[in-house]
User: What shape does this take?
Amino acid sequence: MTGRPARVLMFRPHARFRAHTHTRPLFLCRECGAKWPCQPARLALLVAYRSNPAGLRDMLTNKLAMALSDQPRADPDDLTARFLGWLPDGR
Ligand SMILES: [Zn+2]
Assistant: This one.
């Protein structure tokens, strides 16, 4: 990184379009450092899967399984809420 203050990055016009992907094993966002899926990742996923909400749930369920395997000491309920709890109730 450069010595620039972090907030400078926030005001770059293209910054909000950068992919918010996760690391392993902690599933932290590579872009913003928040727990994944962070808010920008959630928004991008909702847009990307807008015509396939079941596919989004399947993908996040697979990510949850990875996180549960990677973090055997984590609370499964917390991880489940983090990965799936934010999804709209798609009926
Ligand atoms: Zn992020």
Remarks:
- The first helix runs from residue 6 to 10.
- The mean pLDDT is 88.
- The radius of gyration is 15 Å.
